């Protein structure tokens, strides 16, 4: 019986000893957990600060709506197909409206063809990034040509090989004496609005074949670029990983704003319209 009584007592003392050991050991993990939490909180605050710092000088997207930024091909194609499908269904008495089925087919077929043709020939808009400071200065400093170029390249175009095709042809004289081969033609892939030394600047981002399109080719045509997109701007070049950035910076003179005598600079937006002009 003494042995039987001794065993429960030993088990009780063992349980107490384990509890004391657990109490002595437990604060360390608790302190470690608290340190981890504090480090995570500091890291989160740092991440928020980095995001805030990056967004303060970042770019914003203009929210204004322009009908030119809508693809007519993506609108007309589904519309024409819908008219044709309903017209066939009504013609075979699968859908109501058999009296107008012929009209639906007559109009649906050419609308579908026109939508496919526009989708095939369309040139997508170039993405444009703007800083808040540049947006505030645009209306008061941007020249007529800067505005015209920005509006032309940020809309859908139809039938053109690329954006600013006519302008690049005149500047680089593709296939002509003193010009460069057509295969080296720079491609406009982006647009930025920035502020340089307190003046509004429109930056054209070109992608080029760097192994063939050299810096010297651009430098030789810097004056031509400035004259072509002037007056009232100063053109600067900056080499990038993709190719070249051409900055059209307002010179502060106010020239090139408000119309006046102009000369043709870009082709008309659509056949039959007047050529777009340079101030």
Automatic annotation (TrEMBL):
InterPro entries: DUF2854 (IPR021275). Residues 253-279 are annotated as: Disordered. Signal peptide: none annotated. The chain crosses the membrane at residues 72-92, 104-123. It comes from the Eukaryota. Keywords: Membrane, Transmembrane, Transmembrane helix. This is Thylakoid membrane protein.
């Amino acid at each position: 019986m003494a042995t039987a009584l001794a065993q429960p007592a030993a088990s009780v003392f063992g349980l107490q000893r384990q509890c004391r050991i657990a109490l002595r050991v437990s604060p360390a993990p608790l302190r470690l957990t608290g340190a981890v939490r504090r480090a995570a909180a500091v890291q989160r605050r740092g991440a928020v600060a980095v995001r805030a710092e990056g967004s303060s000088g970042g770019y914003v997207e203009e929210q204004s709506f322009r009908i030119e930024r809508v693809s007519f091909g993506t609108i007309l194609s589904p519309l024409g197909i819908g008219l044709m499908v309903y017209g066939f269904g009504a013609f075979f008495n699968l859908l109501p409206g058999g009296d107008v089925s012929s009209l639906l087919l007559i109009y649906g077929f050419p609308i579908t063809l026109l939508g496919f043709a526009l989708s095939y020939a369309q040139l997508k808009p170039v993405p444009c990034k703007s800083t808040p400071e540049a947006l505030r200065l645009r209306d008061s400093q941007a020249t007529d040509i800067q505005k015209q170029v920005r509006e032309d390249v940020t809309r859908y175009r139809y039938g053109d090989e690329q954006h600013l095709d006519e302008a690049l042809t005149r500047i680089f004289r593709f296939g002509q004496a003193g010009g460069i081969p057509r295969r080296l033609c720079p491609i406009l892939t982006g647009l930025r609005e920035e502020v340089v030394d307190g003046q509004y600047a429109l930056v054209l981002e070109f992608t080029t074949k760097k192994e063939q399109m050299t810096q010297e080719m651009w430098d030789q045509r810097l004056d031509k670029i400035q004259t072509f997109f002037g007056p009232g701007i100063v053109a600067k070049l900056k080499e990038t990983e993709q190719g070249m950035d051409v900055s059209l910076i307002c010179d502060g003179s106010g020239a090139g704003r408000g119309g006046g005598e102009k000369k043709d600079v870009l082709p008309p937006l659509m056949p039959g319209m007047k050529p777009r002009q340079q101030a």
